[in-house]
Amino acid sequence: MAEIEEMKIENENTKTEEIRIDNRVTLTKVYVGGGDDYIVISGNDISIFDKFRAAGDELTALAEEMEKKESESGEMDYKKEIEERKYFSEKATAIMDDVFGEGTTRKFFGDVYAVIPNFQPDLECFLDFWDKLIPVIERLSEHKIKLEKLASKQRMSKYQPQDHKRKGAK
Q: Model-level pTM greater than 0.85?
């Protein structure tokens, strides 16, 4: 078999230019549970607003369903009532974790889990959690709208006549 000789010719004048393009995504850390735990959300994530609204509807429907079952059965036996409440807690945990990331509920109630490892938040706990997140999502939404308007103005200013900037223009 013939040997193949390799040759490398380097051009000293060739330069590689690097360009880095950063995204303009704003991430917001929301500290939950009174400690160092946090969730990260972004107003640039167009799904967060719909997911939040849908989760609220789902939590409300779950709560109404649980209350309806309790009122229909009158005196529901204790064991069945506990099972219903556990079901609600598990579903609500899954809903919150789906919107804000795995472990969100555990982070929010972290101080409680530290003392009661098998804690299962009840309806009131989730309603309190939800109520505290509403202003955060509203703020993200308002901030997103302001940023979009500003960015739009800046982009459009490139295409607007700039006669008013010329010296001596009337």
A: no
Is residue 162, in this structure, part of any structural domain at all? no
- Which two structure tokens, joined as six digits, stand for 154? 């800046």
In a domain, 90, yes or no: yes
Q: Is residue 62 part of a domain?
A: yes
Residue-range definition of the domain harbouring residue 50: 28-142
Whether 88 maps to a domain, the answer reads: yes
Give pLDDT tens digits for 15-64.
778 888 888 788 889 999 878 999 999 888 888 989 999 999 999 999 99
Q: What is the pLDDT of residues 70-106, one digit of tens each?
A: 777 766 678 888 888 999 999 999 999 999 999 999 9
Q: Up-side HSE of residue 97: CA atoms within 13 Å toward CB?
A: 12
Q: Pick left, alpha or beta for residue 121 (phi over 0 → left; psi -120 to 50 → alpha; otherwise beta).
A: beta
